[in-house]
Specification:
Length: 296
């Protein structure tokens, strides 16, 4: 499974997981240069992991990009890396999507700094692995507040902006492969399932406004977010799909571009699953497989 959590890097070695900045700047892409020229894109959780890969790719394709998140140092680092390696200026805003007033201000700031807003990618989120029976009230609310409520605040605020300005819009929500359940991260399973069906509902409600709403569901996709899981556990994630390997952040970045570029102009209310076949085969145990479920 992927994780967009942002573990602190102070005093810690560089993660062995995920694509480096130089790789993100040069990774081959199926999309043509200039595909997103003139488009303004806001990406939450854009300082690391999947969000950073999206920011790199969309900037490479000509979009004006703004990233937001709670970790200011990561936002600055990513913005500077894209400037230095891609040659595109990326705006950033440190904030929490749990705060609906901060979200409204972010949407207004995005329009002001980029000259508009065409695409919103809700990537911010995170979770911690734990048996559900041991969740604290605070832990449950923290995951729901970010992954479900925060995503909703961003969607509603952007949609109001587009409606009030008579403009079309496109939203992509990064969710998860929830269809078989997600043991040991039940809180994020509940939140992501909520986002999926919220997205399907809003895709219908907002169709008259020319606002498309879609989701991308990553499976076992390697990012530095793997650092939040117990030692030795991420190495087992490749066995969660019949391809017996991990995806990379660029798989999700390109899926997001597909849905927001002209290629996705007739797609709304859908979930694009990028999981190597996990839905058909395999299980993920982010806190380690319990003895009860081990087989010889």
């Amino acid at each position: 499974m992927s994780s967009s959590a942002e573990p602190s890097t102070i005093g810690l070695p560089v993660s062995k997981w995920g694509l480096r900045n130089e790789e993100l700047a040069e990774h081959p892409t199926v999309f043509r240069d200039g595909l997103l020229e003139g488009k303004c894109v806001l990406i939450s959780g854009g300082g690391s992991g999947l969000g950073k890969a999206m920011a790199f790719l969309m900037a490479r394709l000509g979009a004006r990009v703004m990233i937001c998140g709670r970790n200011e140092s990561k936002l600055v680092e990513t913005s500077e890396a894209i400037q230095n390696l891609v040659g595109s200026s990326v705006s950033w805003q440190s904030m929490s999507i749990r705060d609906h007033e901060a979200v409204d201000q972010l949407i207004a700031t995005s329009r002001e700094q980029m000259g508009g807003l065409d695409i919103l990618v809700n990537n911010a989120g995170g979770q911690f692995p734990q048996d559900a029976i041991d969740f604290s009230v605070k832990g449950w609310h923290a995951v729901i507040a970010t992954n479900l409520n925060g995503t909703w605040y961003m969607m509603q605020s952007a949609a109001r902006h587009w409606r009030d300005n008579g403009e079309p819009g496109s939203i992509v929500n990064i969710v998860a492969t929830v269809w078989k359940g997600m043991p040991q991260v039940a809180h994020t399973c509940a939140a992501r399932a909520g986002v999926i069906y919220l997205s399907k509902t809003l895709a219908t409600e907002w169709a008259p406004l020319d606002i498309r709403v879609n989701c991308v569901a990553p499976g076992a996709v390697e990012t530095e977010g793997f650092d939040v899981y117990p030692k030795g556990v991420p190495e087992t994630f490749a066995d969660s799909n019949p391809m017996r390997r991990l995806g990379d952040a660029f798989d999700i970045a390109e899926a997001s571009v597909y849905l927001t570029a002209p290629s996705g102009k007739f797609i709304t209310g859908e979930v694009l699953v990028v999981d190597g076949g996990h839905q058909q085969w395999g299980t993920v145990w982010p806190n380690g497989r319990p003895d009860y479920f081990k087989v010889d």
